[in-house]
Design brief:
The complex is a heterodimer of chains A (371) and B (479).
Chain A: H1 16-19, E1 28-38, E2 43-54, E3 59-63, H2 70-78, E4 85-94, E5 97-98, E6 111-114, H3 118-121, H4 128-140, H5 144-157, H6 163-166, H7 176-188, E7 194-198, H8 206-223, E8 226-231, H9 234-240, E9 243-248, E10 251-257, H10 258-263, H11 268-275, E11 325-328, E12 331-333, H12 352-366
Parallel strand pairs in A: 3-8, 3-9, 6-7, 7-8
Antiparallel strand pairs in A: 1-2, 1-4, 4-5, 9-10, 10-12, 11-12
Chain B: H1 2-29, E1 38-49, E2 60-71, E3 75-79, H2 86-94, E4 101-106, E5 109-110, H3 116-125, E6 126-129, H4 143-153, H5 159-172, H6 189-201, E7 207-211, H7 219-236, E8 239-243, H8 247-253, E9 256-261, E10 264-270, H9 271-276, H10 281-288, H11 338-356, H12 361-368, H13 375-386, H14 399-403, H15 406-420, H16 424-435, H17 438-441, E11 447-449, E12 454-456, H18 468-476
Parallel strand pairs in B: 3-8, 3-9, 6-7, 7-8
Antiparallel strand pairs in B: 1-2, 1-4, 4-5, 9-10, 10-12, 11-12
Helix pairs in contact in B: 4-5, 4-6, 5-6, 6-7, 11-13, 11-16, 15-16
């Protein structure tokens, strides 16, 4: 709590008031987070000036295509960025305590992470029980018989039947869904307040995915967990998240409560993302697409990074970097369309269908220009 | 054998009768599509993998008696959970795997028995696009060489003609000439998948098996590849077998869809009717699991418990019986609650899994010597399921008698007796005997559903039983 004395709010940019609800007693506050990777050739700004907060018991969804910086954001929160990556600037506060600058240990165990591929997150040569007990010993100092009982209880709590037998088995004896449950049990063994889930259901079948989402929901209710849920699947986001951050090329381009985002997406990228999901359009119609691919951000942005794929871009988009601004209650978007003082057609938002068709015409051609 | 014949017959009969009107509309704008003109006929196809282990294990029945027609010019979607045999079915149809039984007929040729010149011909006519563009392109060959390889292999025309053909193909899939000299690692995922598609098109095939072609791609890239596939189909009159686990993609691209579970097709019909009004309980639960609100099904989610059983030892009777939300229950247990059935099913699954765990040699030895402490475990499982229930725990320990009726409890206790002695196989049998029904005894036949040629393999489509939909709604609608 001492860190509070340093007044973390001092550095807040003025426009921060717009995205505002984050202040006060948020569990996790991320501000201006910039994580970069230095390579011989260039510096990649994987996460670029991202700010958000997570309240107690809330689920924050982070959505975006691959390369948008979702996973690096997750790893940054846990301090899992290794060389050549480094958190260049920004602050990550948990319960008010600053974590950046090697203070991760102050809250180690309060934040836990579940990775995408359950087969890679478990050690094949130890039993599942062994791996849960290891976490219990390190984070809670529970040992011996007590740890054994607790491991069985944890496996039961994540819905693994016959837990007492299963606890003695090795990961390969578990099916994919069971393995992910076991990974969640390991993550819960340190009794976290915040669970970061990095594409936890992407490797799983839709039926198993439904089971895991249900489980996370139950756990959240029981343990009052806050969850940061990272995925590229809009359907999953709609089902799990309370609020959603849309990421694009390292930046957060839109943030809104989940219902608001799906009903009134304000950023052209979000609109494109929602439109290109198959099944939302009448089958037989062509799928609307977004031309091009996510660029790799290597320098500080001086323009809108989405501009050259954007069906609604106008000339100012090439010159001005849009900041997140308030476009509705508790809803921000970083797009010049919503800023005053630029010459553009305010109705552009309604051109959605047309705009995406344009993008589509380029789509085949652009297959060529990006090797 | 007679069962399979019957199923096959009724399947084809229904398809031929009812499919005409629905296809007619599509025919008018695409002359390559003709109703009832199967390009590939699959009859009772089987593919077993036998590992010849010294322990003499049962073979893995990856594909077990599949019958379906793939019509000229259509896209047939094939969906199911991983491990259900989708990919093996696709590969066996192409002749990449030797069929254990049954046949694949195309243009009067039995593909499974082809050799020599005829086999080469079939290999030109039928191609495959693989799931992972990372793994299916050789990193040490240029894109030009990769796309040219099938032409070289089949001695197609002259060298310069081949080269020209490759440029043509690259153009067709939206790449351009300069890409000829590049290597796969210089391409993005979507572009790599385009290269895979160009390679598959090289020999002008009629039929392409697309095995999860867009699963590894981001949604915006995925949309472009799907559009490309649809364009190519229209332009070249291709027939697709589109294998995917992403149900939304299949809904978008497929004309008809086949739903596969544990080696067999459980439902087959026009995509829109299957999606908007699924007939088979498995299809129903599978579709209800799609996350998000855009799915078009406003039904309550039916969450399936557990994972599909091992194809090494599929359940007797209906394959889906172990997880089925609409399973026929014996009349004498009519008064058991939904929760009670759920617990009984859970116990059944635990015992089944115990009976089939692939245990290491030391574990087997321990059990042989009676060192494995099983007795206490099973009691704990039973206690968990039927006593320590958080909802009813408050009701001062009388919970147990509330949950199970007298006869149900005695059956459960019989099973537990066996399990205590480590005889899991017998314990499973006791439970199956007591709580099983027609679903556990007979493998269901295909029944025609609706009037558009849809078939679904579930006993509940006979007059004797209530319709699967209303059963599921009744059992799961209000909790």
């Amino acid at each position: 709590m001492a860190a509070d004395g340093a007044d973390p709010h001092a550095e807040r940019p003025v426009d921060e008031a717009a995205r505002a609800d984050g202040g006060g007693d948020a569990l996790l506050e991320v501000e201006g987070l910039t994580t970069v990777f230095h390579t011989d050739k260039e510096t990649i700004r994987a996460v670029d000036d991202v700010s958000f907060s997570v309240e107690e018991g809330e689920t924050l969804g982070i959505v975006g295509e691959s390369g948008s910086g979702k996973s690096v954001t997750a790893r940054s929160i846990l301090g899992l960025i290794d060389s050549p990556g480094v958190i260049e600037s920004g602050s990550i506060r948990f319960r008010g305590d600053e974590l950046t600058g090697d203070n991760w240990d102050t809250h180690r165990g309060d934040i836990s992470i579940v990775f995408q591929d359950p087969s890679n997150s478990l050690n094949p040569v130890y039993t599942v029980g062994n791996q849960i007990r290891e976490t219990l010993r390190i984070h809670q100092g529970i040992r011996g018989q007590e740890a054994r009982e607790e491991a069985v209880r944890l496996l039961e709590s994540v819905g693994i039947p016959d837990a007492r037998r299963r606890v003695t088995e090795y990961p390969h004896q578990f099916s994919g869904g069971m393995r992910q449950r076991a990974v969640i049990a390991v993550a819960l063994a340190c009794d976290p307040d915040l669970l970061v889930c990095d594409e936890p259901t992407t490797a799983l079948d839709v039926t198993i995915q439904a089971q895991i989402l249900e489980l996370l929901d139950d756990l959240q209710d029981e343990e009052d967990l806050a969850i940061v849920f990272i995925t590229h699947d809009m359907g999953v986001i709609e089902e799990t998240a309370d609020r959603v951050n849309v990421m694009y090329a390292g930046e957060m381009v839109e943030s809104a409560p989940v219902g608001e985002l799906f009903d009134r997406p304000q950023h052209p990228y979000t609109r494109g993302l929602l439109a290109s999901i198959p099944g939302r359009t009448v089958s037989g119609d062509r799928l609307p697409t977004i031309g091009g691919e996510v660029p790799t951000p290597t320098a500080e942005a001086t323009d809108c990074r989405f501009a050259d794929r954007c069906p609604e871009a106008f000339d100012a988009c090439e010159r001005v970097h849009p900041e997140p601004i308030r476009v509705g209650p508790d809803h921000t978007a970083a797009c010049l369309l919503h800023e005053e003082g630029y010459e553009h057609d305010l109705d552009a938002g309604d051109l959605r269908g047309e705009g995406t068709t344009d993008g589509d015409a380029d789509a085949v051609a652009d297959g060529g220009d990006r090797a | 054998m007679s069962r399979n014949d019957a199923a096959t017959e009724s399947g084809t009969a229904n398809e031929s009768e009812a499919s005409r009107p629905s296809r007619a509309a599509a025919d008018s704008d695409d002359s390559t599509v003709t109703a009832d003109d199967p390009l590939v006929e699959v009859r009772d196809l089987k593919k077993y993998y036998d590992d010849d282990g010294f322990l003499g294990d049962d073979p893995v029945k990856a594909v077990d008696g599949v019958s379906l027609d793939i019509r000229r010019g259509e896209t047939l979607g094939l969906v199911g959970e991983s491990g259900c045999g989708k990919t093996t079915l696709g590969r066996t149809i192409l002749g990449l795997e030797d069929a254990t039984g049954g046949e694949v007929v195309s243009d009067g040729r039995n593909v499974a028995r082809l050799s020599g010149k005829q086999l080469r011909e079939w290999q030109r006519d039928a191609q495959m696009v693989f799931q992972d563009p990372e793994a299916s392109l050789n990193d040490r060959m240029t894109v030009g060489e990769i796309v040219r390889e099938p032409l070289d292999a089949h001695d197609w025309e002259t060298a310069s003609e081949r080269r020209r053909r490759v440029f043509e193909l690259l153009d067709l899939v939206g790449l351009n000439e300069e890409h000829y000299y590049r290597y796969p690692h210089q391409f993005s995922g979507g572009q790599r998948q385009r290269v895979g598609i160009a390679r598959a098109l090289a020999l002008e095939p009629e039929f392409i098996v697309l095995d999860e072609p867009v699963s590894a791609l981001d949604v915006s890239v995925q949309a472009r590849v799907i559009n490309l596939l649809e364009d190519l189909q229209e332009e070249l009159g291709l027939t697709y077998l589109f294998i995917a686990h992403d149900l939304s993609v299949v809904r978008h691209i497929a004309d008809r869809v086949a739903v596969m579970y544990l080696g067999d097709i459980v439902e087959l019909g026009d995509t829109e009717t299957v999606y908007s009004d699924p007939a088979h309980p498995y299809t129903l639960s599978l579709l209800s699991a799609i996350p998000g609100s855009h799915t078009g099904t406003d039904r309550d989610r039916v969450t399936l418990r557990g994972t599909p059983p091992s194809p090494r030892d599929p359940p007797q009777g209906c394959r889906f019986a172990t997880r089925c939300p609409a399973k026929v229950r014996p009349a004498e247990f009519d008064d058991l609650s939904g929760t009670a059935w759920e617990r009984i099913d859970a116990l059944h699954t635990v015992l089944r899994e115990r009976a089939h765990t692939e245990t290491g040699l030391t574990e087997r030895l321990k059990r042989r010597l009676g060192l494995a402490a099983d007795a206490s475990d099973i009691d704990e499982v039973v206690a968990d399921l039927f006593e320590r229930d958080s909802d009813v725990a408050a009701a001062d320990g009388s919970a147990r008698s509330d949950l199970l009726t007298e006869s149900a409890r005695s059956a459960v206790e019989d099973a537990v007796q066996f399990a205590r002695r480590g005889e899991d196989e017998e314990a499973t049998a006791v439970l199956r005997e007591a709580f099983g029904s027609v679903c556990n005894r007979e493998r269901p036949e295909r029944h025609a559903v609706g009037d558009d040629g849809r078939v679904s393999a579930c006993v509940r489509h006979t007059d004797e039983y209530e319709d699967p939909r209303s059963v599921v709604d009744r059992r799961f609608g209000d909790d």
